[in-house]
């Protein structure tokens, strides 16, 4: 059974807008760097149809494909800045504490 692709209406408007911007950016950079679509497809391991959908901001294209394309084109850090470690590092003070007895588990 084929994988069901997400439609633009299935994602929040802000996300759809960002994907469209990433797609336009990928196309503009590919063209300005004189990289043929077939070459980028080969490096990404995707079909030409997937590249076209990605360049139009299709939410059915995987996030890893978008990010890899941005990385190949040399603009990943500009398009998607790294998160501050406070958002992903382990913070023991922020964890929920377990109760000492098994009776109040629920």
Largest sheet: none
* Total strands: 0
Helicity, as a percent range: 40-55%
Give the CA-based shape: globular
> Distance between the terminal alpha carbons, to the nearest Å?
40 Å
The helix count comes to: 5
Question: Averaging pLDDT over every residue, what do you get?
Answer: 85
C-alpha Rg, in Å? 20 Å
Question: β content, as a range?
Answer: under 5%
* SSE series: HHHHH
Low-confidence stretches: none
**What is the CATH architecture term of the domain at 8-78?**
Orthogonal Bundle
In the CATH hierarchy, the third-tier topology of the domain at 8-78 is known as: 434 Repressor (Amino-terminal Domain)
Alpha-beta content class: mainly alpha
Top CATH class of the domain at 8-78? Mainly Alpha
List keywords for this structure.
single chain, 5 helices, 434 Repressor (Amino-terminal Domain), mainly alpha, 106 residues, globular, 0% strand
SSE layout:
Layout: H1 13-32, H2 37-44, H3 48-55, H4 63-72, H5 76-79
Description:
Helices cover 47% and strands 0% of the residues. The protein is an all-alpha fold. The protein is globular. The N and C termini lie far apart (40 Å). The chain has five helices and no strands. The protein has a domain at 8-78: 434 Repressor (Amino-terminal Domain). It has helices at residues 13-32, 37-44, 48-55, 63-72, 76-79.
Task: Summarize the entry for a quick read.
This protein has five helices and no strands. With 106 residues, it is mainly alpha-helical.
């Amino acid at each position: 059974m084929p994988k069901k692709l997400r439609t633009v209406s299935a994602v929040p408007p802000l996300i759809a807008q960002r994907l469209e911007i990433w797609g336009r950016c990928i196309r503009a950079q590919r063209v300005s760097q004189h990289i043929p679509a077939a070459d980028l497809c080969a490096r990404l391991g995707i079909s030409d149809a997937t590249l076209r959908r990605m360049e139009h901001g299709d939410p059915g294209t995987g996030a890893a494909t978008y990010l890899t394309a941005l990385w190949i084109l040399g603009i990943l850090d500009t398009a998607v800045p790294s998160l501050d470690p406070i958002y992903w590092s382990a913070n023991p003070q922020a964890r929920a504490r377990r109760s000492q007895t098994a009776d109040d588990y629920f």
